[in-house]
Fold these 4 entries.
Entry 1:
Amino acid sequence: MSVSAVSLAGGGAAPKKATQLYDRPSVDHDAKRQEARALLQRAAAEGGVTQASSLGAEDVVITHLINALGLDIPVFVLETGMLHHETLALLERTQAASRAPVKVYRPQQEAVIQFIRTHGQDAMYRSIELRKACCSIRKMEPLGRALAGQRGWITGLRREQSQARANVGLVDTSEVATKGLTKYNPLANWTWGDVWHYIATEGVDYNPLHDRFYPSIGCAPCTRAIALGEDFRAGRWWWEAEDAKECGLHVKSQPDQTRNGGQRAAPSPAAASNTGAQA
């Protein structure tokens, strides 16, 4: 989905920050905040849960909520060895500022070296199979270690993000989509504008790549900025067909029978002035 069109700073004006471009809350934003808080409190009470953070806009909101509520929920980040410098800098700041522990998981170095020796540094561009093999080594294997012994995990999935995520529910127990665990998605009903309203009003630290029209941020070789009117995830694996753009961490969920008609829209880079953006 593409997002509502936004006007860029025109003429010789300085470029606007993401907090200026995308801060467009829904009319029921406060209710969505309370819903997210309640779900995180429930997850903490049930125990055995951890937050999976890519350090993207949604995830920094969730980590901020966890800290603000004083919840016993650890956070983990998959440091693939290919992240942007800006993401690594944010990781350091997050570890220093977060009350909740932030643990880093890295891929097995031997597997990375063998993959590069066999297929080359840029193998991901040659085929979907090789790209997914790279994701498996750099993301999926470390994810398995991060989730070992856990009952559930918390993600920043939102329905607005892509067609494949349109049925995401607040709580997902479908085995394939959740790696056999309970998956909590506290921002499932939030719009991109809701996410950035929270970041703006709470002063949450975020990745400066968002200011340069990177709404979805992954590994550096596989992420680019998006253009006005492009889909929210158009900058991820942009050389592939639209329906292939997942790495395996999040598999398409079954339709959520409890959804309450949360808003939809997806952000495009410059999309955010008079009409409000999404993500």
Entry 2:
Amino acid sequence: MFAVQRLERIMEMLYEEEKVQVNNLVKILNVSDVTIRKDLRKLEKDGIVIKTHGGAVLKKAEVVSEKDNIGEADFTNRKKDVLAKLAWNYIKNGDTIFLGSGYTCVSMAKQIPDDCNISVITNNIEAIPYLKDKCNTLILIGGEVITHERNFFTYSSEIDDQLKSYNINKAITSCSGIDLKFGVSFSTEASKKIISAILKNSQIWYLIADSSKFNLVSPYKISDIEAPEMIITDTKLEEYENLSNVVKYKK
């Protein structure tokens, strides 16, 4: 079992039980306790767990502090920051990733690990300063600069041709809305065209969406809700419980 697969399984157990024991993980994952302790150290470094005697517990997210003490926008952004950090656990050295537009993807760029050995393709102008010194290769897709809801990203009608020469392992995006019937949607036509082109050239799609995006429908549908390999969120509403691709970050 590869390291990323072990981490996924460990996190699944953490989401369900909020704690794990080294001895139990050794049996389930069929690896040594040295390997498990190394995995837990990584999760602790990433701010996901707190190590305890013989195991670890899921770290309570700072994002769930009382809303009365902070503004609504700050409260939502802190949730997005936690989800963005969590997403890095699904990226491995050697990957070529696409990083989409919006606050969540900028937060991912800000939290890129120092030892990250990846290449990044993006249309997110605001993410560039945080990525430029930490990637093997950094490619900004060319085109017109679009401003939408305080986000700045590029778009070209020739994006399909621009992407043909790239093999993208993983696409990481946010969205405007997620709905059981309507699926995943975006608020602008430009965003829809960009993501459609990216998904044609990507092997895996990770969608990061905080709970405020659920049960919302925006004008431009991109896919059914089952299309993303994984939806990383801070909650799992009852009606979404049967979806195997929704990963919940427990409060």
Entry 3:
Amino acid sequence: MKRSVAIFLTLGLFGCQQDKLPCPYECTEAANASKKLLIIGLDGCRTDAFQIASTPIMDSLAMAGRLYTHVNRGPHTVSAPGWAALLTGVWSNKHGVTSNSYSESNFETYPDLFSRLKEQFPCKRMYYVNSHPIVSEGMLAAADHGVVTGDDGEATSDAIEQLMMCRPDIMFVHLNDIDHEGHDTDFDPDNEKYLAEIEDCDRQIGAMIRAFKETFPTQEHLVFITTDHGGEGGGHSNRDDDPNVTHVFMIGSTNTGVIWQDTVAEQVDLYPSVLRFFEVPFDSTWALDGKPLLQ
């Protein structure tokens, strides 16, 4: 476990290759560039443990927006189905992912969020930084740039670098160390090591949020922080009836005073919420299962 991770920039190490981006800056400006999105996924973060841990950064984001607890994450309690529900806006009976394999996925019919937004805004700059390939090996192929680091500290440093150097319109960051600690020492709110990992991720989120705000001081921001599943003991597989696994949390926060729906949220709600933020007209043929959480 990386209890205290130093956050630093390694400029040029992962370079965004600005000259190789597919669209000129003027085109990006014309494509509603006043709106910026940052999604941070915390793999395996159990809700009651998150509520006990000291997380001042996530708490402040929730105060500025909305914290949803008891968020339904649906069946098949491994990682890929959870991330697929979040990033497609539909449940597994539609997106087809029921295990940590994407071999049966139906993303041509139900495209992931990056694909949908790239279709709507071809010139938006989309980036991802993941510390585990579980998300990007099946989704996010429409990104202009992506990195899998294998380490949360490196993922955080690279996300900060990409924000400051490349100024992406849309960024997805996946941090995996909470899940790793849960498997090693138990997903348990009484487990000090598990809580310490959540607190370490909160510090890393703080570094990313500072870079996000400094890079885009005048733009409209939407930030989502969420998780794919909880856990019990040393695992989370085949726990469809365990609320400590299936009830997760989601934080939505903006800098515009948007009103958030007072509702019971589900994982599939993130996708339509992002579409509403970017003012994308809903098409009934998309057959989304989620609802926008932004009024």
Entry 4:
Amino acid sequence: MKPVGYLLNTPGGPAGEPGPFYNYILAGNGLFLTAENPQLRALISLAEARVRGLWPLEPLLELRHGRIPAQLLSLVVGTMCACPDREMYASIIWDGERYAIRLPEQERDAGHVTYETLRGTVAEIHSHGKMKAFFSDVDDRDEQGFLVSVVLGRVDTLLPEARARLCVYGYFAPVRLAEVFEGLPPRVEELWNIR
């Protein structure tokens, strides 16, 4: 069995042999990638192109248990703002009944944080301490699973920055925090783009 499927988006829906991990779908408006697990379902655009004879697709992000409560994001932001001199990592998991925050073992300093992604992670949040909120090359290498990633920056200020993206097995798509969380903490400035 091949791990990846290659599908065509026909009038009757995607046609072809799907893969168990994710699928590439050639659609009327370009190349897409789709994946799903018990927590997430996603469809992201990889490349735009007009392809005659195929039906178009639209990007999608579905959190299967609903959006994550805003107070969980607020708690993580508050914790990270209390430790601005070192990067920090938090995981938001689905525990079978509700979303919960987990702080796994991690090695932290001013320029990096090393951690192990927990099973069942829906969203991971890490801080860049006093630096801006951006996804680094190290983040790109670390975030090879299927989850939402949020990076916080300038956590030493009154208005920390936040940036979010959907990670699908090494592919990335920017997402708005409101697509993932039921609201935003009043003290967070969202930056909107992939880097």
